[in-house]
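One chain given next:
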Amino acid sequence: MNQRTSYVIYDISTGRILGTHTRIDGDTGKSVPLGDTDVVAACGLSLDERARTKVKVLAVDAATLRSRTGLRVHTKRQELVPRDHLDLKLSRAEIRGDGEDSVDIEIRVVQSSGKPDDTFNGRIKVSTQRGRLSEPGGIVQAKGGLAKISLRSVPETIDRVRISANDIDGELDTGRATVAFL
């Protein structure tokens, strides 16, 4: 079986993956070795992005790189690792669809190891399909890896409402939860 090589270009300060590239020889079906300059050019980074971000290239087994979602480069070990993520905990799973009832949402940053990250102090945007969030635009400031927001119901009955949270800088994987409006 042929092991194919993919190349990952990443920000050396954060490990954030900026692009990936694989080149396969059409005749042999094998990976074509590339230099760092070729990879950076193939990933389509703008000159602006190249100027403001120090990047590095890492060769990895293509099978481990199914998608760049959920992965980052551990800058010291030079390997792909899961990204940290947001975890949403609801004060309860169901609320009345009367326009008055609400649920509290606790958002915690969790490291890829499963431990809470109490160093994160970024902004988080919370989105929902229905209801009204307690903060304008659904944006909350995390302090010590923790943020809180409330969702008030709307006067209607709906089976389930999805809630998602993303950090503004896009460094963390999305957190999701579901609440039922009764």
The chain has a mean pLDDT of 84.
